[in-house]
Amino acid sequence: MRGFLLFFSAIFFLGCVDDSLVLFKQQQDEYNLKKELTEIGYKIPQKKTVYQYKIQPQDRLNIIIFNHPELSSVINDTTNGTNLKGTLVYPDGTVNLPLIGSVKVAGLTAQQAEEKLTKEYAKYIKKPYVKVDDVSKKIYVLGEVKQPRVINMPQDTISLIEAISDSGGFTDKAKRNEIKIISGDWSHPTMKIVDLTKLKPSDVNKLVLKPNEIVYVTPIKSKPLDIRIFGIQPVIDFVNSILNGMVNVKTLRE
What we know:
5 helices, 2 domains, single chain, wza like fold, Outer membrane lipoprotein wza fold like
């Protein structure tokens, strides 16, 4: 009987070892394949991270504490023809909120800000549910489009094609092979040039814009940018300075 048990145990053990060896062999084969591909110069694509906008000083936030409207910070200010909403993020990156006072939110995503404020409000109210929406996210579409405009962004990104479409599309004078995307500020501006005539259809949706970027559709004949959109004269001046100066330019023609 003892011999039988030893024999059965040996069979069971060998079966388990065989399964693990198969698994190990699969992992080893996968490792060897990756190694061989790397050695011949093939770059294994990395998982792309989704861009998330981080709150900045001077942004405006709509902060809603559900079931507590007296604590929510949704403000409409229609002075001077503008429509400002939400709570201003001060230059030091903080917001001043009812009950919890000053809290730093600059450098956080909207989700991270929600989590931080939830913890703060949980000290005073039971099971708070906080929603944060940054209403400052926008891009500017200028130049040879039918409706130059400022586009508010409910999400963190928008595709270049969608932005141009929302602006009425190209005019007859637009250079489709020279779409300029301007980022940065006066001290560190950068510019990318996109050639839409040479991009593959599958690549078009990969051209995404981030908040505060400027799309400038170049005219066939060079001319200074002169349009009238309320409240963005500093942006117009910035674009004209970029077009007339030297900046870091990256051409996207692939």
